[in-house]
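BUG-519 | component: ligand-complex export | severity: low

The export step for nicotinamide-adenine-dinucleotide jobs runs without errors, but we want the raw record kept on the ticket for reference. Input record follows.
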Amino acid sequence: MTVTAADIRSITAARFETPQKFLDFCANDGQPLGGIIGNEFVSGTMNATFETADPGSLEVLARVCEMGQAEVDAAVQAGLRAFHGNGVSGWKNFPVDERCELVMKLVELAERDRDVLLACEVRDGGKLSELAEGDFDQIRACASYFCDVARRIPLGDSAAQEVAPGIQGYSTREPWGVVAGIIPWNYPIVLTSWFMFPALLAGNCVLIKPAEDTPLSALYLGRLAIEAGFPPGVINVLPGRGELTGQFIAEHPQIRYISFTGSPGVGQHILRTCDRHGTRVKREMGGNGAAIVLDDADPELVARMIGRHANQHYGQTCCTVHRVFVDQKIADDFIDAERTFLNELKIGYQADEGTQLGAVINATQRRRILQAQQEAARRGGQPILPGGPAEVAGRDGYYVRPALFRTSPGIDCNPTEVFHTFTVVCPVSSAEQALELANRSPYGLGASVWTKDVQRGVELARQLRDGTCQVNCHNMIAYGLPYGGQGISGGPGAGVNCEDTFRDYTQVKAMYVADYPGS
Ligand code: NAD
């Protein structure tokens, strides 16, 4: 692997100017933004609204209508009508090329309005432009990949075989019907795309439930879907709180499949709710990523590369590095270099030039992070950078300093995911000890091994209990390879972004057909 300058510096903001079109969309002629059901904007029978704000400045961006039980049901019924159509013209019967055409039309419209969608990520999500631009590119990448998959994986009947005298048997693969995607706030555009495109291309009608902190990109994509010409009911967007709108989705017996991305606790709750009425659930959940650094690694280079990953979206990335197990021979140098890297991060407003560490998404997250920093010290972690609140001149956002702790094998000072630039380094005496400690966590999303001996790295990485195992890289995701979690980080299901993801959005039935007895 060639190391570039970008690999060893933190993701950095360019100055971001908010486009007028975004402000007009948010203002919505003075009305709160409605949900989208059957291609209509809906204010909801609860007459309830909520505000969505810029986490770096606390400026309220828009007022959004909250969808209640009646709206969830209306969206399901709209989805079912669109799915079945009049028996021949439903979304489930659309030829795959026509589904692909509509999906790619939506991609083109998103690219036309790239600046608006970037503003959704930067202003509503608190994201740096460099990261937001990479996220935006996932819209086309994901749609193109799944169009290709949809053309390759046939739905319908397999070849029939005689399974008993006079009885033909075959399998048939078909979409579920109405499926829902429950999306978290940290990667709204990416995770909406990862859910929506495979689900739609497999022939399902979708309900998108964006996170209450970042509803704007899904609402904007919903508008673009209407403009692209998706039939009413194929794409519905239901903004609202998790315990309300999300809960009504989980409780609805006619939703056949739910794709949930979020925290393990909520995922477990949704699984239990859905199990009561048989809705299938696929869950992509949090991580507490480990990196193992062997004694032959260059401590300074690897500390910078790991630091970059630890600070991706200020550590609010599910698979990022929070635990580092480094050989004791190079541990002091590694910790020194990591401290320098994290200490030099420029804390600032996410839309200002040069910012590397912006505000976290909301007050609750900020409080949790500050508590976790104190808890790490209470559990015996030695603070190298203690964290704590940060101030940014002229901005009232939720700013927190990065934290770095040194620990030892007997002390686990971050047993749960801390969603920030929060790294705990544990010097170890051997790679085997590092592996044992890395695998002790109940999470299992992504982990990495860092060494000049790539073959040794692969041998160790194979033994990690994680859905994504990496050597000399981290936070890797590629279309065609599954991205999913083990342990409490995910499952069941294939994970996202691979052929089996597409199959997850279909059901397979066995068919047995015999002639009428005696005929
Ligand atoms: P969260 O679990 O609080 O919320 C996720 C979504 O679930 C939101 O839309 C929320 O409104 C909804 N929700 C909350 N309670 C609900 C309920 N009772 N019924 C139905 N829906 C409900 O997570 P978050 O704080 O928004 O996101 C951060 C978490 O997501 C972290 O743990 C992160 O690691 C994880 N994550 C995982 C992946 C992955 O691919 N594995 C990707 C991104 C984020």
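Assignee comment: Attached the raw record above. The longest strand covers residues 167-175.
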